[in-house]
Amino acid sequence: MGHAHCCTVLLIVFLALQQAAGFWHFDVFPSSFKTQNKVPNNSTPPVLIVPGTAGNQLEAKIDKPSRVHWMCYKKTDYFFTLWIDLNMFMPIGINCWIDNIRIVYNRTTRKSSNSAGVSVRVPGFGQTYTVEFLDNHKLSGYFNNMVTHLVNMGYVRNEAVRAAPYDFRVAPNEQEEYFARLKKLIEDMYEQYQQPLYILGHSMGSNYVLYFLYQQTQAWKDQYIKGFISLGAPWGGAVKTLRVLASGENLGIPMVSNIKIREQQRMTTTNPWMLPFEEAWPADHVFISTPSFNYTRQDYQRFFKDIDFEDGWFMWEDTRNLTAGLSPPGVEMYCFYGVGLPTPVTYIYDDQFPNADPVDYVYADGDDTVDSLSLGLCKRWRGKQVQPVHVKEFRSMPHMEIVLNRKVINVVQSILEGRYGEEDSTLMN
User: Fold this and answer.
1) Does the keyword Transmembrane apply (predicted)?
2) What are the CA-CA distances from residue 427 to residues 123, 198, 201, 365, 418 (Å)?
3) What count of other Cβ atoms lies within 10 Å of the Cβ of residue 251?
4) Across 274-402, where does the E strand assignment appear?
5) Cβ(124)–Cβ(57) below 8 Å
6) Strand 161-163 to strand 288-289: parallel, antiparallel, or no bridges (unpaired)?
């Protein structure tokens, strides 16, 4: 591919992606924050970032028994970028990519594994580059604005501000090794700075953090965690997950069909985990409406059968109780999320369901991706734990923009500098 054509493809893909903010994939924003030379500040607490779904890079090495297309690589002697590599969006490339990134679920063992002959690793654990930009060309910015701002405050990358990327294809019930590494990283940062740290989570990363905190003793949390800052967490799941599993969503990429990308979106255990929880929705709310049936949260088994993805039901059974009940986290909590944006809560299909896009939508309040019922479940923790729970709603704040918005980042700064007070928060009774 010629250089000029390659650049054109890059531009088209990333302009398209900018219009497609979503819950389980990255968004694309050029960094508007410039690094300034600041003296390191060792007085502010260290910060550990846990990204959302698809919010960090993945790498793969392959030695496959077969290939899905003759143009796909069958073997590599090195690890290559699996997420995100722009070649995956090309007509042939997407078939190779889906076969490399998919997981294989075993109903008998209730375990998932990589595709045959594929090794996947998460680069940069403990470092920030893998969450600041999701591609090696630094076009798909994610936490770069946030980290750059922290550096301008006096934080040092990979020292006082670090990140804990993970294999976002796999739900927490199969992430024992990751959580062991996360715990050790927290303890190491505590030892280095001799003070507890803040965990900063976005989107499903916050659900990961919540699950992790449930596994720790209160004494451990009291010693090592100063607070948990959550941005746009789908505490009660997300309705959008049902649409993605049913008919797919191509992230706004004009060269990729929804049905094609659906192959990959079904090959994770995190999407079934994020189906709407009973804590957020009444039993009779219709999430998917078709001419033949209306699906509520009581109909998940039939839903998976009707979309011909019965493994999804077993995945959901495996993960449904990971944070069920939504007990308080046991640490000081800062729960921030967007409201005031139309957010689909019912997808209406015609008789081509599930192999065609929805024909209509019912909207409710939310951050354009997750509804406010789910986002606001953290309010129930106020008064249910010794530690304070701060809730702040940001009007008309999209799900992805909350990570890079200057107003939000300034509020995060006020927390780290010990200036955040009740007068700054919007507490609703």
Assistant:
1) no
2) 39, 21, 20, 18, 19
3) 22
4) 288-289, 294-295, 333-339, 341-348, 360-366, 389-395
5) yes
6) unpaired
Let me know if 425 is a catalytic residue.
no
**Separation in Å, CA 182 to CA 29, 106, 133:** 28, 27, 21
In the set 367, 374, 390, 425, the catalytic residue is 367
Out of 203, 206, 230, 374, pick the active-site residue: 203
Q: Rounded CA gap, 312 and 268, in Å?
A: 9
The backbone torsions φ and ψ at residue 229, rounded to the nearest 5 degrees and listed phi first, read: -100, 115
Q: In this structure, what are the phi and psi dihedrals at residue 158, rounded to the nearest 5 degrees?
A: 65, 10
* CA 78 from centre of chain: 27
| Average pLDDT in the chain | 89
Residue 376 in tokens:
């606001």
- The Cα–Cα gap between 182 and 163 comes to 10
- Choosing from 149, 202, 390, 399, the catalytic residue is 399
The closest of 242, 252, 267 to 113, measured between CA atoms, is: 267
Known active-site residue 203: yes
Reading phi first (left if > 0) and then psi (alpha if -120 to 50, else beta), residue 138 is in left
SS3 405: coil
For residues 63-77, average pLDDT: 90
Q: Where in the chain is the domain with CATH 3.40.50.1820?
A: 40-61+124-417
Q: Which two tokens stand for residue 82?
A: 């699996």
Q: Which residue(s) pair with 337 in the sheet?
A: 393
Q: Confidence band (pLDDT; 50, 70, 90) for 86?
A: confident
Per-residue pLDDT tens digits for 322-341: 998 999 999 999 999 999 99
Tens digits of residue pLDDT in 132-152:
999 888 888 999 999 999 999
27 is catalytic: no
DSSP letter for each residue of 215-251: TS-HHHHHHHEEEEEEES--TT--THHHHHHHH---T
The confidence score (pLDDT) of residue 192 equals: 96
Tens digit of pLDDT for each residue in 183-239?
999 999 999 999 999 999 999 999 999 999 999 999 999 999 999 999 999 999 999
> Could you give the CA distance from residue 381 to residue 19 in angstroms, rounded to a whole number?
34
Of 342, 344, 336, give the one whose Cα is nearest residue 289: 344
**Residue 173 confidence (pLDDT):** 97
Q: For residue 225, which phi and psi values (nearest 5 degrees)? A: -110, 120
